[in-house]
Amino acid sequence: MSTVLIEIRRAKPADAQVVAETHDEAWRSAYQGIIPGPELEKLINRRGPVWWENAIAKGSRVAMLGFGDRVAGYVNYGRNRARSLFYDGEIYELYLRPEFQGLGFGRRLFTAARRDLAQSGLKSLVVWALTDNDPAVNFYRALGGRAVARSSERFGTKVLDKVAYAWQQ
Fold it and tell me: Taking burial as the number of CB atoms within 10 A of a residue's CB, which of 9, 11, 34, 51 is the most buried?
């Protein structure tokens, strides 16, 4: 019987390539058929290795979940950006490669980010999800997220609804 190490750690600038690859795979899986193709390609291409290297080097909180020698997913989080929502922290992104979904890794990443935010004094938390992204909506509901706001976002000519889920400490 072999043992596989599952580890969550903060990303370093040297991890930019693998974070970009994980982002690419996860976004294609999550948003194909939701975000129009050309717009999805633009969004993915803007977040290449250089973008991630700069973000991590400038102090963006990015944590990666490693499964053996592979990166299964990542979470990007920090202070809440929506001034109209009175929550301290925000998970900006939480994504897993398709083959690692449904195994509890998303919950591990969420818990690690929430713990890190709380240790920094950010006790409440919000996350946005496109309402057409059923797996994300179901995931945040299963984690106890309470819908607290709705908005929309334009992707080319298509406008998509999104919902904010929140947690209090």
Answer: 11
The answer to whether residue 82 is domain-embedded is yes
- Domain range for 23 is 6-122
d(CA 163, CA 4): 36
Give the span between the Cα atoms of 1 and 93, in whole angstroms: 35
The candidate with the shortest Cα–Cα distance to 149, out of 80, 78, 84, is 84
Split into its structural domains, the chain has a count of: 1
CATH number at residue 15: 3.40.630.30
What would the DSSP string read from start to end of 90-143? EEEEEEE-GGGTTSSHHHHHHHHHHHHHHHTT---EEEEEETT-HHHHHHHHHT
Interval 79-135: pLDDT, tens? 999 889 999 999 999 999 999 999 999 999 999 999 999 999 999 999 999 999 999
CA distance 81 to 95: 19
Residue 167 within a domain: no
CA distances from 58 to 13, 51, 52, 61 (A): 9, 11, 10, 9
pTM of the model: 0.94
Shortest CA distance to 47 belongs to which of 67, 74, 72?
74
